[in-house]
Q: What sequence folds into this?
């Protein structure tokens, strides 16, 4: 009996040693492959996935959390220039993978977080149905999506597309085209060197400098933007809008807040149903402009050398307010100042340098003020 037990113990020990030599232990599986710069990594699994760049021309894969039966669903292989990691069926596993910096990544997981840490050169495409996504520095195009978490990236030297149905989006500076959307969080972007389109149904938007066109929309928060080199389209149903500068047309709409536009060169269409409007505008003669509010003051600043015609109108609720409460004020000469008791409105015109493209100012039960913009 003792001799049989000794034999069993010896066989068990030899089995463990053998498994370890082939990269497999009772709690992990490992494999490594020699690759060339620019090769590919394809991952289709369930569980957390962490990919890290390193200085070796080698792909190293480590998998933990699988029992002996689950390992039958795992396949790690190399076919030409592509290393593949595939896990069939849903398992609670973790994947830690090291690749050369110059590597194209295709990563999909159905049940965990996804991260790409370090520096990468190549395209990165990935998605998860149940976790956060983090990507650090990439020289190449990146596309990422998650149905249940936040997305964070560093600086991306290429195009960037991001989407999440349940979290925030934080992005560094992007050299290419950008498109980011979320149904449940804030969007914060350090900067964009080309055009940018962002949208959220449930949070604030904050963007730094944009060297192209910008489209930003939210159904539930504020919008704050730095300088925009191209056209700017900003829309919110529930907050304030602030734009620090734009060289092109600016279209700005909010149903529930104030509008503040500074250093605008071109034309403006700004509308709010529940706040004040402040605009610094240098018209370039390309198009008409319109500033309107249903319940707030309007302040317009234009330079004295602008070639434009300004038409201002205030609608009021009572005849008493026509004469005692609301006024159109201007540092420039007001023409055709009229108080119409029948229509219950106050109107006036300003003509600068012979007139030009029209700037319309319309508000209700509030004041309008036209000031000089000092350059």
A:
């Amino acid at each position: 009996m003792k001799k049989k037990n000794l034999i069993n113990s010896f066989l068990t020990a030899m089995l463990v040693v053998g498994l370890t030599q082939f990269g497999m232990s009772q709690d992990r599986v490992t494999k490594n492959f020699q690759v060339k710069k620019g090769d590919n990594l394809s991952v289709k699994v369930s569980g957390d996935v962490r990919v890290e760049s390193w200085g070796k021309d080698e792909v190293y894969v480590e998998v933990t959390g699988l029992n002996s039966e689950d390992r039958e669903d795992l396949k790690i292989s190399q076919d030409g220039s592509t290393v593949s990691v595939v896990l069939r069926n849903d398992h609670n596993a973790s994947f830690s993978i090291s690749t050369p910096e110059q590597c194209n990544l295709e990563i999909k997981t159905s049940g965990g977080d996804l991260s790409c840490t370090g520096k990468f050169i190549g395209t990165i495409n990935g998605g998860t149905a149940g976790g956060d996504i983090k990507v650090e520095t990439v020289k190449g195009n990146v596309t990422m999506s998650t149905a249940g978490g936040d997305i964070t990236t560093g600086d991306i030297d290429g195009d960037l597309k991001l989407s999440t149905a349940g979290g925030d989006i934080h992005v560094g500076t992007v050299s290419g085209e950008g498109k980011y959307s979320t149904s449940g969080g804030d969007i914060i972007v350090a900067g964009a060197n080309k055009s940018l389109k962002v949208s959220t149904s449930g949070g604030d938007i904050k963007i730094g400098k944009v060297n192209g066109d910008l489209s930003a929309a939210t159904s539930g928060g504020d919008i704050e933007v730095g300088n925009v080199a191209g056209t700017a389209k900003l829309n919110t149903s529930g907050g304030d809008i602030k734009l620090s500068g734009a060289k092109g047309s600016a279209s700005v709409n909010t149903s529930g807040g104030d509008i503040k536009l500074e250093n605008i060169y071109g034309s403006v269409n700004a509308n709010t149903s529940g706040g004040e409007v402040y605009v610094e505008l240098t018209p370039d003669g390309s198009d008409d402009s319109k500033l309107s509010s249903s319940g707030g003051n309007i302040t317009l600043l234009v330079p004295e050398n602008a070639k434009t015609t300004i038409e201002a109108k205030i609608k009021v609720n009572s005849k008493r307010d026509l004469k005692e409460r609301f006024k159109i004020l201007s540092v420039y000469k007001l023409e055709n100042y009229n108080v119409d008791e029948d229509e219950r409105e106050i109107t006036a015109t300003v003509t600068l340098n012979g007139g030009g493209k029209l700037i319309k100012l319309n508000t209700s039960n509030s004041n309008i003020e036209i000031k000089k913009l000092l350059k």
